[in-house]
Amino acid sequence: LPSLSLPSSMHLIQVDSVQRWMEDLKLMTDCECMCILQSKPISIEKDEQNELILSSQYSACDNLQLLLKRAWIISTELTRIAQKLKKNRWQRVHSMTVRVNCHVRSMINEYNTFTRNSSEEMHQFEKLLIDKCSEFTAFTERCIQTEDEEILKPMKSCINETLTTVAQYFSQLIELVLTHEAQNLLRQIELSDSVYVTESAISSLFSLTQEGAHLCRIIAKEGGVVALFKICRQDSFRCLYPQTLRTLASICCVEEGMHQLEKVDGILCLAEILTDNTHSEATHAEAAAVIAQITSPHLTFTQHLSSFLENMEEIVTALVKLCQEASSGEVFLLASAALANITFFDTMACEILLQLNAMKILLAACSDKHIVDTPYSRDQVVTILANMSVLDQCASEIIQGNGVQLLMEMLFERSSSGNSAEIAACERVQQKSAVTLARLSRDPEVADAAVKLSCIPRLIKLCRSPTERNNSDSVLVACLAALRRLAVMSPDGLEDSDFQQLIKPRLVDSFLLCTNMEESFV
């Protein structure tokens, strides 16, 4: 930007009305104009490209998303102010404070144009936040007018304190706003008989759940799970079941959501949906997604599982059927993910699966590349096989379904996209296929089939070559365990060096050998 030089006569103007206008202008100026005029001074610092600007030209339906985006920007700016303050970059601190002031005022103004029935408490926090932001800006403005360290040192302490208070007021206001919006949406869901209005409210609620666990907690506390299961029990809203169940799956990632699910007999409702053949495949798939969510082995809260066990046989039967009849890879993934999670917490589930010929169904599905079409799906299948392999009867099922061949193929699982999530899924497939082989190879028939399919050379390659296992330690440990089990059954399939390095030592010593001397093995 070119520097601006004002005529000397401009400095002589001392009119009260002009001064008043200048003061009012700070409050009325649009945020983007303020950013250009005050928040982007000519600076030697090279972080201008990181400035966070947000257009206010949004349609009415995007108001809530605009609010969340504005809130994220303010939160980010407050963090950056703290960082600049530590480095005593007063000019930057001031310009960023002005920008936060603008964003706060814009956020409050924008929200008040579309909100309804905002509470007195919310208005009080709005005023507190605006006043504190003005105080904050005034503090930082004084700091750029002096370079005296004796003056700046105590002021820095005041600014830090004010920054903390601004952040606190801001967090409390956002909490109130989001709670208010969740209440409005849930009120619409509970009171409306219109499919269109209810669909719109559920869609907005789902968008909120995608903003993180904190919003899911707010929705759960305000009765979101109760309201959504009420929809799932009304035939007049059948067309909304998939969308409603998808929203429920998101809310149930938090403990508060799970508590609510337990209170309204949500698992019984899910079992009824899954076993009702009049529902669409989409509805069954989304119900499976909720089951997968609430049975996730990563969850630390499991009090809901007692009621799950009561309905487990019905649910597992329905999920196996969904896997067998799945018309797409996505439906199969959701159903198999639910089954995989269920096999983790009760061996009875594995016994039910055996009785239902699930092994045969899953192995057959893997031969259909349109159904089992990603490493994520294969991860679910091999998880089920690994957990079922603890049962003695599983070995014959594997042999009959050509399962050893599938496990051998899974040892070659590689990512085609290079995506980190897909690479991680491929590692899990390799690890679990090796674990399954190790468990099943206690049966001589399975071990013999594995040896004939050249599993031993592949396991050796995975142990010795870090690139083959993507440097994964968990894959290495699983492969060493499987190799040792097969070596007992077929010692002739090993060269002496393999035996001395991979079989004879303690497993931990072989592991260290493979991780510390990788280059010599490649």
Automatic annotation (TrEMBL):
Gene3D superfamilies (alphabetical): Inscuteable LGN-binding domain (6.20.200.10), Leucine-rich Repeat Variant (1.25.10.10)
Domain Protein inscuteable homologue C-terminal: 70-522
InterPro entries named in the record: ARM-like, ARM-type_fold, Armadillo, Insc_C, INSC_LBD, INSC_LBD_sf, Inscuteable
GO MF entry, a single one: cytoskeletal anchor activity
Any one annotated GO CC term: apical cortex
Protein inscuteable homologue LGN-binding domain span: 13-57
Gene Ontology process terms (BP): apical protein localization; asymmetric cell division; establishment of mitotic spindle orientation; regulation of asymmetric cell division
PANTHER family per UniProt: INSCUTEABLE, PROTEIN INSCUTEABLE HOMOLOG
Protein name (record): INSC protein
Species whose genome carries this gene: Rhynochetos jubatus (kagu)
Lineage: Eukaryota, Metazoa, Chordata, Craniata, Vertebrata
